[in-house]
Amino acid sequence: MKFNKLGLSTQLEEGLDMMGFEIATPIQEKAIPIILKGKDLIACAQTGTGKTAAFVLPILSMLSNKKQSDKVKVLIIAPTRELAKQIDMQIEGFSYYTNSSSYPIYGGGTGPEFENQKQALVKGTDIIICTPGRLMAHLKFDYFDSSSVNYLILDEADRMLDMGFYDDIIKISKKLPEQRQTLLFSATMPPKIRKLAQNILINPESISLAMSKPAVGISQSSYLVNDEQKVRLIREILKNKAKEKPLSHVLIFASSIKSVKEIKKTLNRSGFASSDMHSELNQEQREETIRDFKSKKIKILVATDILSRGIDIKGIELVINYEVPHDAEDYVHRIGRTARADNTGEAITFINSKQVRNFMDIEKLIEKSIRKTPLPNNFDKGPKYEVFKKMKKKKWKKK
């Protein structure tokens, strides 16, 4: 459906037309009319479906019809500073054609940055995009007048709950007017999300888009390998890839900061210049790292799941999962960093003996058997993929 059929304000439609946006994505087509009607919404849609514009566009449209004031009207909460900043960038692009203002609030900055955030809250920036922890820090000082917040939006709600922000979100929602519109967007819909929705939404409409399968252009494979040989295997893979053609854009995911640092250190010693990305870096370091990786100044980046969602980096040729993600959906998000915009890419996952069952869940989710590549000849034999199947049979016989 075309954007000019969705009921957005005239100036926003004109702006979208000038920017070359004509056809809405499925989540935009379904969500925008519901939001414009003023209804609460719970929407299940993964990263890359256009969900940010699905809530930003109707919010900007409705703000254009309201009188200007010196109070915050919209509160958008996101799990990470990277996603908060990305949402703010999209708002800046779309709001160019409206009179709305926005400001991102997240941790990791300096003292002056905290003061700038305070001023954005006190002077009434129309839209505040924030992380839960940082907003809670500001709420302690009682200078944020939230009485005019008409819209509360939770983006990547499942990720926020995984990070332990449930109580903070409840506390924040209680600080806001009861008469407001609340929108909840989540890539997955586990019971804890439904519990949150029941507590902060009122008679919400629901949208659920099927989980997209990995892009056709992604070549997926895996190795059954013991933990002590994983770093060495990464080195071996990169060495073989470099023989075929120079490495230009490689992303390696690891679940812990300790693993990220170990991989980076080993690769650098082996002549593979790499950098790392994790929560221990300050905001300036993280922004510089993302910039350098996008521009390919950094060719190999080792990161925690901080980069698995909400970050659009084109041209990544290879994604390596140092271990199997705990949630099957996270696998789709991780490997979705490659083969973007109809390009091709490769995703390789390492499986240890404890992660076989999780990898089977991934194959079940994407309805595809992923190739198990034999280890190089100079490696010790890895675990068996059938190990959990055999254990199940033994337990069944005992009964």
Provide the fold topology.
Blueprint: H1 10-19, H2 26-36, E1 41-44, H3 51-63, E2 74-77, H4 81-95, E3 102-105, H5 111-123, E4 127-130, H6 132-139, E5 151-154, H7 157-162, H8 166-174, E6 181-186, H9 191-200, E7 205-208, E8 218-224, H10 230-244, E9 250-253, H11 257-269, E10 275-277, H12 283-294, E11 300-303, E12 318-321, H13 328-335, E13 345-351, H14 356-366, E14 371-372, H15 387-398
Parallel strand pairs: 1-6, 1-7, 2-4, 2-5, 3-4, 5-6, 8-13, 8-14, 9-11, 9-12, 10-11, 12-13
Helix pairs in contact: 2-3, 3-4, 10-11, 13-14
Can you offer a commentary on this structure?
This protein has about 400 residues and is α/β, with parallel strands linked by helices. It contains 15 helices and 14 strands. It has helices at about 10-20, 25-35, 50-65, 80-95, 110-125, 130-140, 155-160, 165-175, 190-200, 230-245, 255-270, 285-295, 330-335, 355-365, 385-399, and strands at about 40-45, 75, 100-105, 125-130, 150-155, 180-185, 205-210, 220-225, 250-255, 275, 300-305, 320, 345-350, 370. A seven-stranded parallel β-sheet has the order 3-4-2-5-6-1-7, with helices on both faces. The chain has a seven-stranded parallel β-sheet with strand order 10-11-9-12-13-8-14, sandwiched between helices. Strand 10, helix 12 (about 285-295) and strand 11 form a beta-alpha-beta unit. The chain is globular and about 70 Å long. The N and C termini lie far apart (about 55 Å).
